[in-house]
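Usage example:
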Amino acid sequence: VDMLGKHRFRYGQAETENQIGVATGLAYTTVGGDTLQIEVSLAPGKGKLVLTGKLGDVMKESAQIALSYVRTLTNDLGLDADYFEQHDIHIHVPEGAVPKDGPSAGITMTTAIVSAITGKAIKREVGMTGEVTLRGRVLPIGGLKEKSLSAHRAGLSTIIIPKDNERDIDDIPETVREQLTFKLVSQAEEVLAIALDGGFKK
Amino acid sequence: VDMLGKHRFRYGQAETENQIGVATGLAYTTVGGDTLQIEVSLAPGKGKLVLTGKLGDVMKESAQIALSYVRTLTNDLGLDADYFEQHDIHIHVPEGAVPKDGPSAGITMTTAIVSAITGKAIKREVGMTGEVTLRGRVLPIGGLKEKSLSAHRAGLSTIIIPKDNERDIDDIPETVREQLTFKLVSQAEEVLAIALDGGFKK
Amino acid sequence: VDMLGKHRFRYGQAETENQIGVATGLAYTTVGGDTLQIEVSLAPGKGKLVLTGKLGDVMKESAQIALSYVRTLTNDLGLDADYFEQHDIHIHVPEGAVPKDGPSAGITMTTAIVSAITGKAIKREVGMTGEVTLRGRVLPIGGLKEKSLSAHRAGLSTIIIPKDNERDIDDIPETVREQLTFKLVSQAEEVLAIALDGGFKK
Amino acid sequence: VDMLGKHRFRYGQAETENQIGVATGLAYTTVGGDTLQIEVSLAPGKGKLVLTGKLGDVMKESAQIALSYVRTLTNDLGLDADYFEQHDIHIHVPEGAVPKDGPSAGITMTTAIVSAITGKAIKREVGMTGEVTLRGRVLPIGGLKEKSLSAHRAGLSTIIIPKDNERDIDDIPETVREQLTFKLVSQAEEVLAIALDGGFKK
Amino acid sequence: VDMLGKHRFRYGQAETENQIGVATGLAYTTVGGDTLQIEVSLAPGKGKLVLTGKLGDVMKESAQIALSYVRTLTNDLGLDADYFEQHDIHIHVPEGAVPKDGPSAGITMTTAIVSAITGKAIKREVGMTGEVTLRGRVLPIGGLKEKSLSAHRAGLSTIIIPKDNERDIDDIPETVREQLTFKLVSQAEEVLAIALDGGFKK
Amino acid sequence: VDMLGKHRFRYGQAETENQIGVATGLAYTTVGGDTLQIEVSLAPGKGKLVLTGKLGDVMKESAQIALSYVRTLTNDLGLDADYFEQHDIHIHVPEGAVPKDGPSAGITMTTAIVSAITGKAIKREVGMTGEVTLRGRVLPIGGLKEKSLSAHRAGLSTIIIPKDNERDIDDIPETVREQLTFKLVSQAEEVLAIALDGGFKK
Ligand SMILES: [Ca+2]
Ligand SMILES: [Ca+2]
Ligand SMILES: [Ca+2]
Ligand SMILES: [Ca+2]
Ligand SMILES: [Ca+2]
Ligand SMILES: [Ca+2]
Ligand SMILES: [Ca+2]
Ligand SMILES: [Ca+2]
Ligand SMILES: [Ca+2]
Ligand SMILES: [Ca+2]
Ligand SMILES: [Ca+2]
Ligand SMILES: [Ca+2]
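Running the assembly step on the lines above writes:
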């Protein structure tokens, strides 16, 4: 489950321009779907990972998985072998007082980390949801219908979802479904290729 | 929510002169608003962050976010790249026995940290309230009416508030509203420009 | 006991090709058996072990045991004496929101670690279950019947099981039993020899 | 509140001579006031702070605040810039089995630390009570009447109290009030100037 | 008390050959005695001690005591003075899912550590039980009768017990008593001399 | 209070010869007094303090206080300034399964540490009880009568007690009182002078 408590974010509109280090995720709460921002900042350091935003244990583990997956891309990203030992990474999910949990922000965290590291912006009209594994597999999530409604409401045009959720698309109201482009992915590299301004190639 | 327990501070008057490393925040308690001071001290060290003042988890995370945001300004502040690895930072919120929590001291912490680092004083007549995110976004807060009353009572003349709280201004009693200047901000840089003696430019 | 909660994985089919650093385990839940993947990633580092996948204390200890056992093979694997002090190892068990516990993934973790380190792929049609001890002894597990059914359902052809579970094989329905090859082992080296593409010799 | 449990110290007489690294505080318990000793020892080390004496969280934070405040005096005390990274500091409050809490030992801890560092003794006839903040502000405390009675009973002649407690002096019985000298302070430097043998100047 | 929960080990037969780094202990559970193996592995490292096998706090402390005692033998064992700072030690007690506690595995842990370090095997027919102290004193244990029965059942021929348990020997059924050799010890060095293949001399 | 649970030690006789690093303390339990041994071992290391013997928080703090006090004697003991940063110290109180707490083993721990460091033996016929503070003050303890009875029963001839317990001596039965020598102390240096073979001088 992917619970964000009873509060709805007041903070759910698409960005007005492409951002570096900020990716848009889709969340599923007891009162419906919502969008959330994953913010990543980097600083010279000793390889520390700081996680904030009242994240539950599963979501904290998600961040560790996303980071370890990105570390497997060290060569592909043209980074020094000790890059991750020489930088501290902070991942924050506003709003700070709203509890958040669940594994479905995995690909969003992955994308935000890669954007922060490479300096490539993330396309502002793209939202995403999907659990990520250590080798970049994208696993299915719950609440696709509610998440799609919130993406639509926030003004997003494209949402990246796990291939294994394909069968859930027809549960989404037709008006919404027709105004959103659904990108089905099974590997995190595909997410990066779609979401990053300038694309991504291994 | 931004709870400070049942005790009112006995410590809520505006400073008598501009201070370095001390910013005035506005808090919201069950018995009304209050002002609080965020104190920051620096010392040569190894990058340790010490937080005191009976802070709750969300407020502790706020301090981490404020610090990581300030680290993204390392160049703008003219600091060495390893400045934050070579200093310990202590953030304290008196009074020590009163529990405090919530994200709304984010911009106050940010301002106090930058003041302590740069040696620029903070204007004594300025109070502020607003959640900050990792990229310096200022998010809306609750209790603006009560916070404004306490700012007025404490003798402040200017309060910095999130742009997204603009619509809450008309809930403040007219007498108070007319004696306070409201500065609406959406980015932490704007807060620094307003609150720091000598201003701030990126 | 080897409980994985009430949720069944939706993620239980055999891999479509041999993988490096990913081994297939067999789990036993209150609603039957299931397969799970153990993923291992390596990065230059300082010898840190990161464990994710909502693992219980016994399963976390299992990972430590597997790692210490593999460290005793440092010479046999042709690794530098300080290899494990110069690398961080992350072991993840998808799906991230499903709690998992028990010692029976010991040999699966062992195999995944050795595969990640050596770059030798693991045969995609092989599943395994068995507790491992510090000197590589393979201890018996529970739920062999249910685990065998799930292995069969997932399309595996060979399962490696502890020698001490031999007497439990005749509890498995004949149709399933005849389509699976059972490899009985008492030492982890035997597991590596069977599961690794290219085998293993001490 | 500044609770020390139900036990009264059996250890509450003024020192018979001036001591280095030991300051006399005034505490307030459910059964009345009491005096307590704050002991500080220094050793070559790596900047570790050890706190003992069954201290509650607020009192532990008080010690951290006192230490950070003293670190801001590094130059004034003629210390090397890395002095506090090269020494371990232990702060103990006998008696070890009596729980203690509250912020009002702040200035006592500050004084004991400075005495231990400088080797200047603390005047044996002086007791003190007051919360300290990171910039050395002295904040008001509770229980002044009870604390004054215990100071008098212990044979102290002078007590240092926060300026904001001035109005509470007239609650103290006249006989006691007349035999005690009250020193009102608003900054920790004033405390040091009064309590240290040889005084203190910034 | 020396409780191992309600489960009996299925793993309780004497080793078929002498082993290095594996000693046989005797445990006492609510359902009778049992044998257990203490496994120790060494690796180049930084002096880390890893403990697994669902050990309770008293048993974990036992391991620390055993290790500190062995460190006092650094010279006697012909080790470099910094040997223990240059190696990581892992102590595991299978089976991983069975909770274990109590101090009576102290001499077993001591023996397994010394065996792992020296490479001297432990005689396969020897079991042992006894609390160890920091200077190698062997303290009495409970459940000698049950432990002896399990040692006999497992095929052991010799058991090492604390001298202070001598008076408990006559509680053991005569058939068992006559087939076991009891070695009474009061110092850990005596245990090493008896259990290690090749003996031990200080 | 100085509780050791309901179990009486079976281990309470005076040593048969003077020991290095082992001091005899006197404890007070719900079922009467008892003697206990404080064992200290040293090893080359990095200044780590290991505490075992199921010690409660107050007793663990006692050990830290004893150690910090001994560190203030670095010069008097003829040790290098960085001695304590170059050694690990382990303090153990058998029996490992019996919970122990309270501050009254302070001087016993102090004596055992100094003995271990200097190699001076502790006189076997001497027992002791007393809380120690950071500057070596000896504070009074409870249960002197019961502790004296157990000291007598264990065959000790001399017990060191706090000066402030002098008035409690006449509560001890005359037969016991006459066979014990009571040494009244107010400073830890006096304890060392009495208990160490060869004495001690600052
Ligand atoms: Ca929102
Ligand atoms: Ca469907
Ligand atoms: Ca106030
Ligand atoms: Ca309004
Ligand atoms: Ca599955
Ligand atoms: Ca069968
Ligand atoms: Ca007292
Ligand atoms: Ca008054
Ligand atoms: Ca067994
Ligand atoms: Ca008997
Ligand atoms: Ca005893
Ligand atoms: Ca008396």
